[in-house]
Design a protein that fits this description.
By secondary structure, the protein is of the alpha+beta class. The chain has six helices and five strands. The strands form two sheets. A three-stranded antiparallel sheet has the order 1-2-3. The chain has a two-stranded antiparallel sheet with strand order 4-5. The radius of gyration is 19 Å and the shape is globular.
Amino acid sequence: MRRRTVTAGNLEEILQVTAPATDTGAGAALPPAAAPASPPGQEHGLRTEFEFELPRGYVDEAGTVHRHGAMRLATARDELRPQIDLRVKENPAYLSVVLLSQVITRIGTITDVHAGVVERMYATDVAFLQDFYRRVNSEGHTRAAVTCPHCEGAFEVDLSGGRLGES
């Protein structure tokens, strides 16, 4: 088996070469723009985007606090891409910053979420997003089973946001 060195520059080329071709009858691959349109986050009846509310909020350059956002389900490509990122190779702890920046679709009015945005978030919010990512991508939902410490009653809470006491 021949090994191939992958760099950030040739990742797209390799992914295109190894992507399965879709036969449209004429032997040509179906371009992404020609795929049937589905509502965002609802491809094939599967929920692919999840809303969240940050505990503290992201403060942009203008001083505006953004707390509400959305995260999409991660793909294999999302989890592979950070492995070749030079920042991650230099500092493996940076992996979560790169990964979160790829799957967060918006924070407040900010739709261009990149690693720099995640870097400027409070540690509390990054920890929340890491846990949210794990729940959404491994368990498929944002609910958690909890037990009241006083009455021992069991119930579910939705971790995607909302204030304490709100339904």
